[in-house]
Description:
37% of the residues lie in helices and 17% in strands. The chain is of the alpha/beta class. The strands form 2 sheets. It has a 9-stranded mixed β-sheet with strand order 3-2-1-4-5-6-11-9-10, with helices on both faces. One of its GO terms (biological process) is purine nucleoside catabolic process.
Amino acid sequence: xIIDTDPGxxxxxxISLAALSExxxxxxxxTVFGNVPLEATTLNARRLLAxxxxxxxxxxxxxxxxxxxxxxxxxxxxxxxxxxxxxSAALPEPGRALEPGGxxxxxxxLLEAAGEPVxxxxxxxxxxxxxLLAAHPEVREKIARIVIMGGGLAGGxxxxxxxxxxxxxxxxARRVLVEEPVPCVLVPMDxxxxxxxxxxWLAKLAASxxxxxxxxxxxxxxxxxxxxxxxxxxxVLHDAVAVAEAIRPGILKTETYPVEVECSLxxxxxxxxxxxxxxxxxxxAEGDIAQGHIxxxxxxxxxxxxSFVLDRLAR
Length: 315
């Protein structure tokens, strides 16, 4: 597995989930702009791997901005100014230097060297993955599937139409989700919100040991935001839900749909348009917009998913 990430509190849980799962061969981590600027996301990723005792995992920095249009805003109001509720510096310092050459170079080298197909889990804006597939189409055959946290079927969180990761770089998202012939699983916020965890879950994590305590300590700013968003005390582990599916295929129930990404500059920019009509009712007239068909996660055993994540993080 390779994780592409913009840590972010939920990214912290997702990275740790993969790093602590024994059946995962975590080949590398690449970083992207998103919740906070690239310099912060990269340092956060390296510190989180150090927390998990995984300085063996190489990290490379990727895109600092979207493909086309400059980012309108970050998500520091959700994750804190440093991306981790102001507590990034409390994590261990990285024990491994940043990889030279950048994210796309590392992705290519890891994929080319892999002896079996690799799962990529992009849990931030899709800029690095779009660049990889555009510049190096020869690596597609080495990708087992791309499991993406992003999108919203019924609306968004950055705008009324768009979820943050897709909204941050819609052109990149469209390249990956619609135009590329690579198996994709989209894990939208409609499902990740349903997988939210409460304070009792967080207390169990904090009591599990040093890693669990350190992860729980990253949540105050994030918890404050989600107290308002959920209407109760808890947090949404968006990215960890996607990584759980990457680790254990089938832990989420998926259905295959045509999908489009809105790339106009209007109020729907960044929306994921998932056509959930019955196949016979879908418009097939000549001249319709091109649509990619991808798997979309629509359901899971909620308690089972929460237990899976907690058990791995608490080991």
